[in-house]
Amino acid sequence: MSLVADTLAHRRWLIGYENSAIREIMAVYSKRTRRIVERLQSIERQLATGAPLTPAQAAQAGRDRVRLRRLYERLSVDVRATLQTRLQTAASTEIRTSVRNLSAGLPRGITARSPSVDIRTLIQNPTAGQLWAARLDASAAPTLRTIDAALAISIDRGASIPDATRLVAAALDKVGQHRRSIARIVRTEIQRVSNEAAQATYRENRDVIRSVRYLATLDSRVCEICRPLHRITYDLDVDGQHRGPTIPQHPNCRCFYAPVTFSVAEIISRRG
């Protein structure tokens, strides 16, 4: 297989890895929030009858309000820990695979070098100026506020049934939005750490890599930011840097750079 084909094969694996990471994190999310979501659904059904909450439902809603912030703090800890592990695996796998694929395309007796990069530091790098942990926390705040408001108005005897119904529906919708937001962060961060790990490998092997080629995922989801850049190459400078855009360019970006090596004669001259 060619270097580009090997890179594409690994990227297909990475998309599968993203999906499994999201499934794992969504299972964590469901485990932490299942009971309160079920109780919100029960409140919604009760309000749909035109009657306020029963005394038992009201008492439980009050207890849920008291416990709500702690519940989401525990959820945040669980999600962070799971994503941290997944990012570490993605980064280390990317370096190992990039080195192996690059070595396979080099002349006999010449192997690619593995970069000395601190993976723990790499996975904590910000995306668009913000750490992924901060984005996770920010994504939870609106959900927390909306659920609290729904519980509060549901047990307020002076509140109207329509207002309570609207807020409970909004709370359930926010839970869905929050899950989608987490999935978006997971996908974006796995792509980011993988791309950064690959770029570190390319820099370490800049004596055999001439340039990098931008490759977009040309399917129905490709955006107009990424499509025009497909297959454009960017030469590496003496420090192994290039002038191509930083990937990911936007949330859910699936683009990446594939290495383009010097000729066999040039590589032998440089490494010989």
Would you give an account of this structure?
The protein has 272 residues and is mainly alpha-helical. It has one domain. Helices cover 65% and strands 6% of the residues. It has six helices and three strands, in the order αααααβββα. The chain has a three-stranded antiparallel β-sheet with strand order 2-1-3. The radius of gyration is 24 Å and the shape is elongated. The two termini are 25 Å apart. The mean pLDDT is 93.
What are the main properties of this structure?
single chain, 272 residues, mainly alpha, three-stranded antiparallel sheet, 3 strands, 65% helix, elongated
Major sheet = 3 strands, antiparallel
| Shape category | elongated
Residue share in helix? 55-70%
Mean pLDDT: 93
Strand residues, percent: 5-15%
Structurally, how many domains make up the residues? 1
C-alpha end-to-end distance = 25 Å
Counting DSSP E segments of at least 2 residues, the number of strands comes to 3
One letter per element, helices H and strands E, the order comes to HHHHHEEEH
- What's the Cα radius of gyration? 24 Å
Q: Strand sequence of the main sheet, in spatial order? A: 2-1-3
Q: Care to give the gist of this entry?
A:
By secondary structure, the chain is mainly alpha-helical. It is built from 6 helices and 3 strands, in the order H-H-H-H-H-E-E-E-H. It is elongated, with a radius of gyration of 24 Å.
Topology summary:
Blueprint: H1 3-48, H2 55-104, H3 119-123, H4 132-154, H5 161-204, E1 209-215, E2 233-235, E3 256-261, H6 264-271
Antiparallel strand pairs: 1-2, 1-3
